[in-house]
Amino acid sequence: MNDFLTERKKKLEDFKRNVRKKAINAQPIDIPDGIFVKCDQCGAAIYEKTLETNHQICPYCEFHFRMGAQKRLNLTVDEGSFSELDRLVVSLNPLDMPDYQDKLAMGKKLSGMDDAFLSGTATIVKIKVAIGILDSNFMMGSMGSVVGEKVTRLIEHATKERLPLIIFSASGGARMQEGILSLMQMAKTSGALHYFDEEGLLYISVLTNPTTGGVAASFATLGDINIAEHSSLIGFAGARVIKQTIRQDLPEGFQTDQFQLEHGMVDMVVHRKDMRKTLYKLLQLHPMRKDG
Hints:
Elements: H1 2-25, E1 36-38, E2 45-47, H2 48-53, H3 69-76, E3 83-84, H4 100-111, E4 117-124, E5 127-134, H5 145-161, E6 165-171, H6 179-198, E7 203-211, H7 213-216, E8 225-229, H8 239-246, H9 257-262, E9 268-270, H10 275-285
Parallel strand pairs: 5-6, 6-7, 7-8, 8-9
Antiparallel strand pairs: 1-2, 3-4, 4-5
Helix pairs in contact: 5-6
């Protein structure tokens, strides 16, 4: 019996030794980049194709990843109904800021757009709307002169044509490379919305992750109906900046979508898969009248 156990133990040690030897001599496996994506919320490794087919939503915790403007447009409007406005309006470098042109070029490469805002008209279940979408892949969806101008032109077009207006925001705020020219867009877009509102027209603002800074402090929070997409961070300044300024502890999660809903900053929180359906229901409840 003892001989049997000794023999078994020897074989087990030999097996472990061979495994360690193979591990040392094994060649590393070359896994190309972009196959798996780590979820920012739960840390799960998600197969990229799974994420793509699931509309950029984590299948384990429902965290909503950022979505480009073109993909969001395709998810929202009727196929083939979109007609783009102001496509040729592009950013320059009015203040001659160093490296700004390189950042613009990188933004174009990452987003496939000429600037951070895509705008035009389309239909949602055959209801015509004016729609605009900020793309966080282009310099974090920051608002410079061109973004502000395109947002304003879209609002003015919706006012003239008496169309319901839908804007999806995703932004880090005003574009610092354009200084005061960027900050001016806050007043310009808000002014255009004032005249839009005077016509009794419907503006639905959808705040996605993240909506902050000058965009959050202007057109993004001026909707007749403000919707927060699930998993969104919404606020003006960063938590660290606020805490250093007011020297007070801040409520936990005070810039989350649910906190904003509980404190009246948004009217509803909507899952991405339900967004088109929700917008359609709201459009049905608020039909546009040609006679004002």
